[in-house]
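Task card 7
Instruction: Convert sequence to structure tokens.
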Amino acid sequence: LCDSVVKSDAYNLNLNPPEYMNFDGQALRCRSLEDGLVELTFDLQGESINKFNRATTEELREVVSLLQQQSNIRGLLITSAKEVFIVGADITEFMANFKVSQEKIAAGVREAQQIFLDLENLEFPSVCAINGYALGGGFELCLACTYRVVSTRAKVGQPEVKLGILPGFGGTTRLPRLIGVDNALEWMALGNEQSADAALKSGAVDSVSEPDTLRESALTLLRRAVAGELDWQAKREDLRGPLKLNENEALMAFESARGLIAQKAGKNYPAPLTIVGVVQASAPLPLEQALEIEAEGFAELAKTPQAAALVGIFLGDQLLKKKAKQARKQARPFEQAAVLGAGIMGGGIAYQSAYKGIPIVMKDIAQSQLDLGLNEASKILTKRIERGRLTPDKMAATLTRILPTLSYDALRDADIVIEAVVEREDVKRLVYGELQTMVREDAVIASNTSTISINRLAESIQNPERFCGMHFFNPVHRMPLVEVIRGKDSSVETIATTVAYASAMGKSPVVVNDCPGFLVNRILFPYFAGFNGLLKDGVDFQRIDKVMEKFGWPMGPAFLLDVVGIDTSRHAEHVMALGFPDRMAPSSATITDLFYDNNRYGQKNDTGFYLHTTDARGRRKKVRDPEADALLQTWSQPVDREVSDDEIVDRMMLPMLMESSRCLEDGIVESPAEVDMSLVYGVGFPPFRGGIFRWVDQVGAATLVGKGEKYASLLSLNQPTAQLRELANRNDKFYPL
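Output:
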């Protein structure tokens, strides 16, 4: 066995080792056990998790090479020294790795595949003990082992599709041969994590163990294989050939999967169908030839704009998590929360806090509103039970963490109070006058306002350093974003505590400075201004909806206004006009003014751009309304030319882009990534485009500056910003790498 590994600039391998194995790297260590067994442990130094970065991959190559040279090893145990097994590849390296040519990407994938192939082909059995998350490349390592033992607490899976790529370390090849085509395609095309029980049921792992006995269970299995009780060689050989499907079975399996996956994925996400194609093309081939097809498929997807966008979203999400983690270090402890104002929004906030284990008082002045808030929380929990995501016991436990009350007395122990009363400044000021005398002096007070100035509201607070904004998006339980609005007097501790609480609620907080509309609404309403201009020119609203849905939005602007509420949108529109009169004050009545004056509020009263009814199954649906069409005809002034689909996209997106750039110029938010994540998480900006600034990088700043100048005469919001012009002049990007 290997004597030692001498560290210099690289590891020097002793080719004539004595009888023990010793490897100490930055990510891996290897030790001899009794009876010819060796334990390989993943323990990436300086990180809380294990992942396949460049260093880990290179060390694994060295260790596998060492193992290949030994003649006395009888079995290999693979473990993790961290709470997770391996979470996958280091995604921070992806952007640089994907910049090279498609051919070089494929070559790099083949090199990594060879390491896993060499591990699989060792002349002795291997068992991995999966103690926590084993995802992506981490689970592909497990697939290259002979046997897999998983902890009851562990999760496994192939989530690469969520990054716009496919499993490239052998996942598309080994997983279908292990668990069958149908199961494997579902795992890979949807990218969902699988529980230990689900993995065992499908055949992806060989046994499940309690965490404290996991290593011993894996060792026992390894000893049985070494002793000849298990025919591990036959098991390995069985998985090296083509998929066991005849021609008709293959045709049915892949075509039915292709239809279902295409319906779920949509045409804007190529990875799911590429996965089907790769597995189908490699089905009749032995494993090593199938890996070639996998490498080509991976490289093809890695060069798509969707992969760049989805990787960018992942990195943006990591940035938000990192900032939330930093905030926790400066935050005050919070063990009890309160929400002031029940109803749908208050009930949603109460549910989210209680569901994540933080008790919350829900206070209102009317019992009917408290009942509405509790019903909202119960409705959300019931749906989770119906979908198998929650047990009745956990529902009961969640509801017991919500204390409905008509009295301020229950708020005295609250560490943070969220005000969520009606969106009227005079009402909020009146509430603060009562509230601040009834809660602790050090309790954080946060307003869930969507438009009202935090600095103005703070004038009603005796110690405004404890006051800030905390803007949730509706529906609270579905929308990830929370805007934390910093007022001019908000303390560092107040902002940190609010960010930490939002994060503990399972939300993605973004800190923004106070301004009309804050960040998301300030950016969203220029988008609606573009819509207003198109309608004024006589473009049909339903056509605009279809064009923007084709662009990737989950709903078009007309339907979105109906969902938000015409009255709510009109109020926010007026706030924007007062705050930015030079570019957001309309020269005449807008479409929201027209609809509001005619009592068309959208889904709130089932009449807006559309009529909102229910189908035979009781599901909401929207239909065309002749009365809305008649109103539009009295208001619009159709132009005497054809407006193309491209023009619709330009006139919708350019105002949003320019205002996003102004928010960066004004220091409302710190980074392009936080703008992008706010739009994706707050209003459903198409994820496959990565956010508005990654969209700029794809289209080109110079192209969009030219379009902005073209349409500036129609709407001043289209005027390119100095920031965008500078990027265009330098041929630069918001995300250079």
